[in-house]
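Severity: low
Component: inverse-folding endpoint
Summary: output formatting inconsistent between runs
Steps to reproduce: submit the following structure tokens with default settings.
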């Protein structure tokens, strides 16, 4: 990039305005309601010449895809983000969570950091590339998907309809404190229910206590040892016994007890192995405890994923940070998951997630993002697209 020529076409006013308008479209999941936002972004991308498509997923939900066409000499670069947000919560906010309020160099609102800011930056980076008259050798694809906060319905739809067919690398715009992340833990959420037989609390010997059964099971689970190799970037797996619910009244022997478990796994671990181990624990208890009965339900299953830090795409991203901002950044990892858990196992593509704002702001009251971080991320996206897609100036004008 000569003298940041593309960067000069990035408008702070337009970028902030786009993010504010995105925040003002309520996309709380559940139910999601991402379609109005998808349509807003389609209109925005079409306004400067991107090829756009809104994919209706039903129930006022949708994905949006924009393509800045290249010459076809190279495979595409995908910029991806999710359109949905979590609810604002019960804590009172300083400003309306859907106002996009701007104060002291910050933009407030649900989704500002997680992760409408990243999508806004990606779109404005594409616009700057178009305005600069730069010709890409490969397509730049921007994908906004529904449902990442719960079931990744949009990511799975994008994948299953061939969205990654001609893609060479992926950037996910989750908030990263302007760091380059290449690894993330997986999530395995399990619901286990034990069953007993109800009886009057005065005659407990006539019943079978599901809570007592669950106590025996939890004692075994707390002793469970994972099979794994510690990961340099994300460390070791964890297990959290998250909720427990059992019994209906003090004077009734409970016939049902349910717990939920949140496990965070590291790359290389196989979730099916863990599930099978849990089933074996239940089988052993069935043989040891008369009347013991339990069943397992999997409520979330996202594998841990990682791109080798030595991959050329990762090195390119690090070079861009150095060239644009004078910083040396090391590849890092995080303890949570993104839609990379959908994309990478199916494709083995290299991926980073890099976005404006702090991940500490995600799901928090008074969520906000600094305008400086938003603009820096936008510049990074533009420079990375230029460098990775081997662009060359053609002195074209915006159509």
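Observed output (run 2 of 3):
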């Amino acid at each position: 990039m000569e003298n940041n020529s593309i960067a000069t076409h990035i408008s702070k006013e337009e970028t902030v305005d786009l993010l504010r308008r995105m925040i003002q479209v309520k996309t709380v999941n559940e139910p999601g309601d991402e379609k109005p936002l998808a349509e807003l972004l389609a209109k925005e991308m079409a306004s400067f010449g991107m090829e756009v498509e809104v994919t209706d997923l039903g129930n006022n939900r949708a994905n949006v895809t924009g393509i800045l066409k290249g010459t076809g000499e190279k495979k595409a670069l995908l910029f991806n983000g999710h359109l949905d947000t979590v609810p604002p919560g019960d804590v009172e906010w300083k400003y309306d969570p859907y106002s996009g309020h701007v104060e002291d160099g910050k933009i407030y609102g649900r989704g500002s950091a997680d992760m409408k800011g990243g999508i806004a930056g990606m779109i404005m980076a594409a616009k700057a590339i178009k305005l600069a008259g730069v010709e890409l050798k490969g397509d730049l694809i921007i994908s906004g998907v529904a449902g990442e906060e719960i079931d990744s319905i949009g990511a799975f739809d994008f994948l299953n309809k061939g969205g990654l067919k001609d893609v060479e690398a992926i950037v996910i715009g989750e908030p990263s404190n302007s760091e380059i992340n290449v690894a993330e833990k997986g999530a395995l959420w399990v619901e286990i229910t034990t069953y007993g037989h109800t009886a009057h609390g005065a005659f407990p010997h006539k019943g079978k206590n599901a809570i007592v059964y669950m106590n025996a099971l939890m004692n075994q689970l707390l002793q469970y040892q994972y099979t794994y190799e510690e990961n340099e970037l994300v460390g070791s797996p964890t297990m959290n016994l998250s909720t427990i619910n059992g019994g209906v009244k003090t004077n009734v022997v409970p016939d049902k007890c349910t717990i939920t478990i949140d496990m965070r796994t590291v790359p290389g671990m196989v979730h099916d192995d863990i599930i099978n181990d849990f089933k074996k624990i239940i089988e052993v208890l069935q043989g040891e405890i008369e009347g013991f009965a339990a069943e397992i339900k999997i409520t979330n299953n996202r594998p841990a994923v990682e791109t080798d830090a030595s991959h050329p795409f990762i090195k390119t991203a690090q070079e861009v940070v150095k060239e644009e901002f004078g910083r040396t950044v090391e590849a890092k990892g995080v303890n949570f998951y993104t839609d990379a858990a959908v994309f990478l196992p199916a494709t083995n593509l290299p991926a980073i997630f890099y976005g404006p704002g702090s991940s500490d702001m995600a799901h928090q009251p008074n969520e906000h993002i600094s305008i400086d971080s938003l603009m820096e991320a936008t510049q990074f996206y533009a420079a990375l697209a230029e460098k990775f897609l081997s662009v060359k100036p053609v002195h074209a004008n915006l159509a």
